[in-house]
Please model this.
Amino acid sequence: MRLVIAGTDTEVGKTIVSALVVQGLGASYWKPVQSGLAEGSDSERVRELLALPPERILPEAYRLQAPVSPHWAAEREGVAIDPAALHLPAVAGPLVVECAGGLLVPLRREGGPEALQIAQIARWGLPVLLVARSGLGTLNHTLLSLEALRQRAIPVLGLVLNGPLHPDNPRTLEAFGGVPVLAQLPPLAPLTASALAAQWRASALPLKLAS
Model:
């Protein structure tokens, strides 16, 4: 199984969900574009959280310091993100690809719609697991994201809602979004590999992703 983990926005919990899926599938992890290295690397967070061997964490294609949109972070360092450098790595077994920011984040300033992250997802040809916040505001952000994916014929495996459990949003998103909510990930304190494993077993992700 190879899949992309994308988000409706920044800071929606993509890295935690990526760790959840990497552990559940025994997958390799790749974040092709990492901005915000000044605040740490998501690859390192996943490696440390799951105690993974180095070969399961694939090197980023771009490592950018500023915690801003990838296109601007790259410009500030005098580089341009080249789609040719974002080819999927050849790995044996499952692969989890974590995107940077939201679906319509620009990777380059030039190129129009083809410079947006969603265009790169379409080029990969992999299905998407979409991560969204659980609470207020998620309906608009998530339904817009699903519409953008549908317009580009990108298959969506389902949703993972991250944050405090909500009494209605999962049902509403399934009804209007047309995709299943595969997991609801509450705040985990402490956040550990064993806590993620328990969430994996309690969700519909094993049945959907491990087949």
Remarks:
- The longest strand covers residues 95-102.
- The chain has a mean pLDDT of 95.
- The first helix runs from residue 14 to 25.
